[in-house]
Amino acid sequence: MLVMAIAVAVLGLFCVLLAVSCYQLSLKLRQQAELQKERDALRDQRLKELAKRLDAYLTGSIRMGEELHELRRVVAPLPDKLSQMEQRDPSSLSFTQAARLVGMGASVEDLTQSCGLSQAEAELVSRLHQSQKQRS
Questions:
Q1: pLDDT digit string, tens, across residues 87-106
Q2: H helices within the chain, ranges in order?
Q3: Which of 7, 38, 56, 135 has the fewest CB atoms inside 10 Å of its own CB, making it the most exposed?
Q4: pTM, entire model
């Protein structure tokens, strides 16, 4: 009988220890669940921020594409207009010839005197030639 009482007491002690271990494990599990919930919330917030940034980039890209399309539409007829301007006054040097002079080192004043260009036109031809020279 004493042996059974001791066995029951030991079994009871093991049950109590098992219950304490289960309680501690459940506390750790709750802590891990809370930590995971915080991580999930942080991840969701980051995803929302990234989605907003992506939308902003896409909107900007679309706008740039539209503006680029508009610029192409505006710039496309310029070569024809330049040819028309060159053909209007055959007695004066053409803008192409003025560009050649700039390429040979002519100054803005030289262009205004020899080509009959206005100061603004001569500066424009000179700057265009310089920007093309810098790109090359």
A1: 665 545 567 778 788 888 88
A2: 2-75, 78-88, 95-103, 108-115, 119-135
A3: 135
A4: 0.44
